[in-house]
Structures
1.
Amino acid sequence: MRTVLCIGDSNTHGTPAMNELADQKRFDRAVRWPNVMAGRLGSRWEVIAEGQPGRNAVFDDPVEGEHKNGLRVLPALLETHRPIDLVILLLGTNDLKARFSAPASDVALGLERLVTLINASDSGPDLAPPRVLLAAPVPIEEVGFLGDMFSGGAAKSRALPPLLADVARRQGAEFIDLAHVAKVDPVDGIHLTAEGQAAVGAAMAAAVESMFKK
């Protein structure tokens, strides 16, 4: 059996569109994209979902807390779930928050730090590093009550895919651009609809199957 570790944010967690910060709803298990992917991959794969709402790649969040920093938690996740055949990295949306003032190029470099850390780990089979599938998140919209929090983020999110494709090439990772797969829910401009979750899960499964045919 192979193992795939899905590291992400609220869209990997399965958070639907929010109307206020107090919303803590979650799609049913069968709707979340890691479980959709698992169903398509079948019993030969163990799919582990590590999605945390608000998680970013490398920033200590001054509002939501240091625990939202993916760089801090990544080593523990790799050790916890090893041996891991594949890490799917779907982060970057929360790095677009206005509070971080990060251009798209810096968001990409932050994600490259995570890929570099995975590549340097011994958390794959036979103490080798796991393979990496780097995903460009679905582009966001500045709407709803989250629009101000992500001010300027929509344009940056559309600039990310070619930058992340370059990161994947430099680091020997595979790449998938989810801009061609799904759209965000227009209610809050950040989270996926149930249909978007299904589409992402199907696209991820196809990408994984393609990778492991090589």
2.
Amino acid sequence: MMRLLSYNIHKGIGGRDRRYGLDRIIQVIQHERPDVVCLQEVDQNVARTDHDDQPAELARALEAQASLFQLNVRLRSGGYGNLLLSRWPFLSAHQISLRRGFRKPRGAQLAVIETPAGPIQLVHWHLGLAERERHWQVRRLLEHSAFRQSAQLPTLIVGDFNDWLNTLARGPFARHGFIQATAPRQRFRSFPAYWPVVSLDKAFVRGPLEVEQARIVHSRLARDASDHLPLLIEVKINHDLRREDLAHVRPRFGRGRRK
């Protein structure tokens, strides 16, 4: 069983009180006891968050055995992006740019995680605000050589999709055989945190994965800590891969080749 939490932390700034408090984010995450944590909008060396090294602080506080930070938006002294933390090691990891034209830089993190039940391919991202942009980003990732290399593994895709109309589910994900774990979307409203009306934080699965639980965390602290509520998902991996099936996932870390 893998317990995963996906969370747009809004740099640790509360959506209602506008107060910065990374400790609140940490408490929200710790309460759910996840094995894997996927965070969006994580600051590193930015004035608004006291120049904190949030990726390092979060990895330390959550006792992550493996971590991967993707700096997508660069600011004067630092920037922000995606952070992937895991209690289990990565067999491989890639950082893939999803920037299109002159729009805000976006990215995806792709990792094969060595869980006790076997390897799983995880994609973590924060997609764009425009519908055409999001569809392009999904197609780019699903057709990327780094993703196809481990396509036969059970796969979980999570993050902030910004897809409030849910058009991706019946579009590229359906064509590639993915099932939405966060459906119907009315049960997964996550934004804004203090009065959630839209479902932006989603999860899709493919392969021998059984979704044991999927829910939005509605604790009082979560409503104050960020402008999004966290998504918690538990999946059971039902497979028994042979040694030769793992030959292509030798440890390797990089940005991934551009297509």
3.
Amino acid sequence: MKDTLRGSEIINIMRSDLLVSVGKEYLELGVDAALESGFLRDIPIVSSVVGLFGTIGSVRDQLLATKLLRFLGQLSKIPQEDRIEMVDKLNEDDKFSGKAGAAILEIIDRMESQMKPELAGKCFAAYVRAEISFEELRRLLFALERIPSFDIEKLADFSTIAIEDSLKMDESLLLAFVNAGLGKNNGGFGGGAIVPTNLCQTFVRLGLTSLP
């Protein structure tokens, strides 16, 4: 029930015309320092996010609040009417069934890096601009969750790699790509080689290969 209520409030924040206030201010000062020192708590959106977790005492809650602010910072660049339309589309989809906020909170919470939610925000922004479909959005979020953050920057080179070079790559790195749906075996002679998937190409095209 608690996550459902938090999810509803996240949707309200995503719809709000005040979301733009969380942009440059928190990025320039740094989310962690801002939350600890209280520099940004007077900004309505930051105050709303902090309010979702009460007095942020636990490490987990502070991390989740930080991740959520990083995610919302990317969405703040999207016009309000487009954000409202996006939220309505998400809630209408059978996969979310009116619980888009709770689903977003769960996705962000599972991400092991505080930087990944900004990349997730870029995925949602691409969905708003109709650059990707809802199915592609879901696959990208899954890939983002599964790929180790320290391997993300290697995807740009991998996306254009020749088969003979792929055969020389570190096995654990290639398996990480496969596990995230970003690599596949081409079924070639002698066991084949791991090559980039179409999802990998989309991942790179959207600029998700460098952590903020």
4.
Amino acid sequence: MIMIHDLSQQNSLVHQILYELRNVNIQSNRPSFRYNMRKYGQICAYEISKLLDYESFLTETTLGEADVKKLSAPIVICPILRAGLTIHEGMLDFLPDAESGFISAYRKHDSAGNFEIKLSYLTCPDIDKKILILADPMLATGASIEQSLTELASYGTPLRIFIVSCIASKEGIDYIHKKYPKITIFVGAIDEELTAKSYIVPGLGDAGDLSYGPKLQD
């Protein structure tokens, strides 16, 4: 089973979306940036749906009965705030019955420029025996994902866990894959470089700022 799905290796509209998300001139249009992230979430929801289990049942039509299928397990989508909200909206377009949790994780910087990941807020439904999807546009070091999963453990044991990111560093992918070998990762592109300050290069910048405007630094 493939655990890392790099969508840039496929021929699809992901290439056009990534071009517009990365392009410094196009991405400065905030509504357009959010729209492209939302489209990316839609594509990932569809791709994930191919890997889920379905059960058969009979349903009534106007002319008789039809043998159809539906998802066999509930889905919970947890965006990491605030940047993950745009992907979350796109995934809900394709998975409208999914439940939602919300995680606020951010980089707390010190005077030397170093940082640690802080979780300031977490609310989530029961995830036991459900499909859990974590959405975060940028997977840099993997620390936010790791801490989020640690905190979510008290909400139950999911049947499967998916991570959806738009851009990831190779280092972050390797870290998550090594620490959580059973988790399936969907990513739009994998960039080789992670700077000393843990920024993905070439990346696309701060996805939260590009979606919702710049924030004051801590």
